[in-house]
Amino acid sequence: MCSLEKKGNIFVLTLTGSGEHRLNPTLVDSIRSALRQIRAQSSSSSVLITTAQGKFFSNGYDLKWAQSSHSRLHLMDAKFRSIVADLISLPMPTIAAVTGHASGAGFILALSHDYVLMKRHRGFLYMSELDNQLVISAWFMALIKCKIGAPTSRRDVVLRADKVTADEAVKRGIIDSAYDSAEQTVEAAVGLGKKLVGRKWKGDVYAQIRMEVLSDVLDEIHIGNTGSKL
């Protein structure tokens, strides 16, 4: 599940508990509900920070649940596509404060934010599909292409299944910055959030520009509504 806290114009969405934060319908519906609340309560200049408790930001899809039937696979992918589409259209800047491992769809969740800050120790970014004998979906790849600019970095993420540490992710241009602890990571995210709030951008304008920047991702998300792959 997740919790939502509002600090001035900054919303903090936290994946709660000490587990792996596997993306199953229960967690995804909780996140979507929080995003609806954020959209309803947002002012003209707001920011979203997404973070998590425990040693995982998110360990990706709940494959044990999803792979028991094709209908569950389709439902899981469709629900997660909706979250990413919601984040892309959210009328405010978004920051992922990654305080633990982010694997597979959990990595995609982090990349769906405008800024990614990460804890240095005991955490990595990992597209696990190759190691798990799974094809990376077209909409995942569309987001990766938009967010990871260097071809060699994309290759190592998707065709080597590298487990990328925070410092290495900064060097490769995958994330913005790295910090020594979870607390420092969240504090830095709040500090960045305050700076972004201070710019007093109109949320709807910000969202429209982001949607144009990530139009290829949105196109693939909408195409994916006719079928799904993990």
TrEMBL record:
InterPro entries named among the record's database cross-references? ClpP/crotonase-like_dom_sf, Enoyl-CoA_hydra/iso
For this protein, the record's SUPFAM superfamilies field holds: ClpP/crotonase (SSF52096)
Name the chain's protein. Enoyl-CoA delta isomerase 1, peroxisomal-like
Can you name the source organism?
Answer: Ziziphus jujuba (Chinese jujube)
